[in-house]
Design goal:
By secondary structure, this protein is of the alpha+beta class. The protein folds into 3 domains: about 80 residues, Alpha-Beta Plaits; about 220 residues, FAD/NAD(P)-binding domain, CATH 3.50.50; about 190 residues, no CATH class. It contains 13 helices and 23 strands. The strands form 6 sheets. Strands 14-15-18-13-21-19-20 form a 7-stranded mixed beta sheet. A 5-stranded parallel beta sheet has the order 7-6-5-11-23, covered by helices on one side. A hairpin with a 2-residue loop joins strand 8 and strand 9. Helix 2 packs parallel to helix 13 and helix 4 crosses helix 13. The longest helix is centred in the C-terminal third of the chain and has 19 residues. The two termini are about 30 Å apart. The structure holds flavin-adenine dinucleotide. The site of flavin-adenine dinucleotide (FAD) has 45 residues, from helix 2, strand 17 and helix 13.
Length: about 525
């Protein structure tokens, strides 16, 4: 029986090699170390690209395998790491649940929580204010064509949550053993196997939509239920209200995402313990992907072997930082609005990442002192910027756009010759972000772009288009919860995921969904 997991790190190989050579190299190291291992279990754990020296770009592998020896009996050395074999186990509580668990939101957090509760026979009911995947695609297409926003089904709301129309990047900074479970489950639901070993895994919106559909089918096939176009107006211990009707339930998992402001207000009015949380604002910068590949790999054709170049850049100035966020290689800037009269940007790519442009948010941190420091103030701060962007775009969700050169000298226009903005098929209008953004943001943005231009050649070219406004980088508040994962002062309400302030991104939201499911399963009996 497998007792340990062995990981051999730092296996550096030329990019002309194939993965088998990494496994052979690991085996050679293991033989030299006399550690007993299960040969058939050897496989790639992670592969990353080290392109710091363009003249000798390498793959950096870590290879993993199992061992029947106890972890403490194995003498690890150098790049060999030993840990106990992990297996996610779910407890069994004895408290009786008076009714079915209700889950608010079918985003990654709600999905993984529902999958686990359903798999353990608890027949969860998921309420999703937006529509199913296929209807959502249709409604967003219609929004792009007509400029008429559906405030219940859009890029923020609907089956799969905010991440469905995204690059589906699964990178996360949380080091949590549940990540492996999330990645394996996504592969089981149709995601590419490479997400399990690629150091920068991504799915792409086209594949992710199918994954979401299969997840929804699995929840229902395991006895769960999903009610689309159903919004929870308020929640409490043992009930949810929908269109004024109070529905009794066993408990509520509240996974509403970071854009459900009416839900936030009903919680604030309902006296829930909520605090403001750091967030950022900014714009989306677009570059030609081929130029980024050339700048980062030295030869753009190398992207055929390495995948498109990805970057993550940051600059700190005192209490604030400016950083790139949610970079989408070969993707497009999307209209991520969810409220009438507000323009919001974000990014999306298909699995192939075959778009001409790359884009990323360049975001500046907002401090509590920039608004009234409370949750309502944070929401107001975001909303006012979104409305100003809507006005600057001239309506119809047309977005304000400006080149880096224009930002530096306060002039609008001049974009679209070399790099064509992709937002809503170039539905953009010249504007000046020096007027739209608070001065702390516009000045740090300029400093950041200059600094990033020193790290990636051409990053701050004067004709690079910036489209805005990016306000939903993370949740502006946290719903406080206790060690049982229940909302403070509540016994049967479980805040969960990004919207509750416990995650930032698809993977960490899914992990938080699992943690809440674990807490519920360890408290309640199955019958
Ligand atoms: C365009 C875009 C691109 C992104 N790209 C990436 C990426 O590449 N990688 C990454 O890691 N992260 C990305 N993110 C962020 C990521 O999508 C979120 O962090 C993640 O989806 C959060 O998961 P969640 O389940 O907590 O909430 P969400 O995914 O936001 O889901 C919440 C769900 O709850 C529903 N809901 C809200 N209120 C109610 C209510 N009252 N009643 C019923 N239903 C309700 C909403 O309709 C929504 O479907 C992106 C986000 C956007 C918008």
């Amino acid at each position: 029986m497998t007792k340990s997991r062995i990981v051999i790190n730092n296996i550096r190989l030329p990019i002309t090699c194939d993965d088998n050579e990494a496994v052979l190299a690991a085996e050679k190291i293991l033989k030299g170390s006399r550690i007993s291992y299960v040969k058939s279990s050897l496989h790639i754990h992670k592969r990353s690209v080290d392109a710091r020296k363009k003249s000798s770009i390498t793959f950096v592998y870590s290879v993993t395998c199992e061992s029947e020896a106890e972890p403490e009996s194995i003498r690890a050395c150098g790049d060999i790491k030993i840990s106990a074999a992990e297996k996610l186990t779910f407890g069994m509580g004895c408290e009786r649940m008076n009714g079915r668990p209700y889950i608010i939101g079918l985003g990654p957090a709600g999905i993984f929580c529902a999958l686990i509760l359903a798999a353990h026979g608890l027949s969860p009911v998921v309420l999703e204010r937006g529509d199913s995947v296929d209807n959502r695609v249709r409604k967003i297409d219609s929004f792009y064509k007509t400029g008429i926003l559906d405030t219940e089904t859009n890029i923020q709301f609907g089956a799969g949550g905010a991440g469905t129309f995204s690059d589906g990047k699964l990178v996360t900074r949380i080091g949590d053993a549940r990540i492996g479970y999330v990645l394996k489950k996504l592969v089981e639901l149709g995601a590419p196997e490479s997400i399990c070993w690629n150091a920068k895994p991504h799915i792409g919106t086209d594949v992710l939509r199918e994954v979401i559909k299969r997840a929804a089918d699995e929840i229902c096939s395991l006895g769960g239920e999903i009610r689309y176009n159903t919004k929870a107006d308020s929640v409490g211990d043992g009930y949810v209200t929908v269109e004024g009707e109070r529905i009794p339930c066993g408990l509520v998992v509240l996974a509403p995402g970071h854009s459900s402001r009416d839900t936030y207000m009903s919680l604030i009015d309902g006296g829930y313990a909520i605090e403001a949380k750091p967030f950022s604002i900014g714009v989306r910068a677009e570059h030609l992907q081929s130029e980024l590949d050339r700048a980062m790999f030295g030869d753009e054709d190398l992207s055929n072997r390495l995948g498109h170049a990805e970057y993550s850049l940051s600059l700190r100035q005192g209490e604030r930082g400016v950083y790139t966020f949610c970079m989408c290689p070969g993707g497009e800037v999307v209209a991520a609005a969810s409220e009438e009269g507000g323009v919001v940007t974000n990014g999306m790519s298909r699995h192939a990442r075959d778009g001409k442009n790359a884009n990323a948010a360049v975001a500046v941190s907002v401090l509590p002192s920039d608004f009234s420091g409370d949750p309502v103030g944070a929401i107001r701060f975001q909303r006012e910027l979104e409305r100003a962007a809507f006005a600057a775009g001239g309506g119809g969700y047309c977005a304000p756009c400006q080149t880096i050169g224009g930002l530096n000298n306060g002039t609008a226009g001049g974009f679209g010759k070399r790099i064509v903005p992709t937002y809503m098929n170039s539905n953009v209008k010249g504007a000046d972000f020096n007027k739209l953004l608070p001065s702390f943001a516009s000045s740090l943005l300029k400093d950041g772009l200059r600094a990033f231009g020193r790290r990636i050649k051409g990053y701050d070219s004067l004709d690079v288009p910036l489209t805005g406004i990016e306000t939903r980088t993370s949740a502006p508040l946290r719903i406080l919860r206790d060690e049982r994962f229940c909302a403070l002062g509540h016994n049967l309400v479980y805040p969960c995921g990004e919207g509750a302030g416990y995650a930032g991104g698809i993977t960490s939201a899914a992990v938080d969904g699992i943690r809440v499911a674990e807490a519920i399963l360890s408290r309640f009996s199955r019958d």
